[in-house]
Amino acid sequence: xxxxxxxxxxxxxxxxxxxxxxxxxxxxxxxxxxxxxxxxxxxxxxxxxxxxxxxxxxxxxxxxxxxxxxxxxxxxxxxxxxxxxxxxxxxxxxxxxxxxxxxxxxxxxxxxxxxxxxxxxxxxxxxxxxxxxxxxxxxxxxxxxxxxxxxxxxxxxxxxxxxxxxxxxxxxxxxxxxxxxxxxxxxxxxxxxxxxxxxxxxxxxxxxxxxxxxxxxxxxxxxxxxxxxxxxxxxxxxxxxxxxxxxxxxxxxxxxxxxxxxxxxxxxxxxxxxxxxxxxxxxxxxxxxxxxxxxxxxxxxxxxxxxxxxxxxxxxxxxxxxxxxxxxxxxxxxxxxxxxxxxxxxxxxxxxxxxxxxxxxxxxxxxxxxxxxxxxxxxxxxxxxxxxxxxxxxxxxxxxxxxxxxxxxxxxxxx
Length: 415
What we know:
It is built from 15 helices and 13 strands.
């Protein structure tokens, strides 16, 4: 088609200007791809750390347990429940990857004259290792009956080391003071300062005994599913399963971590803002290019109009020129962006020099940020840049084709 050929030929009439514009579109698109990828990587990291470090994707509690974590509000109320059978039923569900029971308590731990408040968490070491990444499996494997894992800051406050003996004192469920001696099996460094200065992991049987809780009474069952984004659906399915005790609450991470949930929504808005900002700046550059190209061809447009060529066809030549401009720019930009994404996904952006270990939204942010493809946002950015290019070409071209042919023929010849 002659209009397409004219559009392609006109693109190279001033090759330097066209190449500069193509490079501008390419770098803008590559930058947008990389920025979106890093933003997506941060979201994935926060979601993974926020749910897999401790919370899990779904939690089961007594409906009155949260937010105060009352010692007496166990699953199944005062009678408790057959939580081992309940966990076995949860594991049979196809969407469930891991399940872990937990017991929580608060008290004092001490070594000699040094003492500090501690959040005591009773866990099944094997089940917790399958579900949580807060403490690695090797460390949890050391957690035998009569032993404890304590946070690094808490260990400093107590002057404790591996092999030290500490005393734990707490208010028990029967109204007495629970107390016992434990051997420090390991020092835990979670990367979360509020946990490192207070956490003490115990075997679930030990903490139940310390808190005077019957073996049937636990405070929480954490569940890990295959896809964290499907956790709300999984929580609704679990709440309808047979054998679930009365009076329990089944919540997904979106309810348990509302700040993280809000951040995910904010991240989507940030992507749209960045895409819009890049499109605005690129549009101004393309508008300038197309205005110059149109002004240089005023005489040519007048001659085409004088020969009887319809204004619509003349307009199409400018639009096809912009079409090819965007096509080349986006193709080169995608290739460059893919190379940047490959590097950032494999090696990440190392922020250790400036940040070290960070925490955000009560979860850990790793100092090396790996980019993750967000195809929906990348396609949206590409389409937006393409549409902006066409619009930027349409505005000056539409004005030019309306110029009177006689006036256009009097325009000076551009060299």
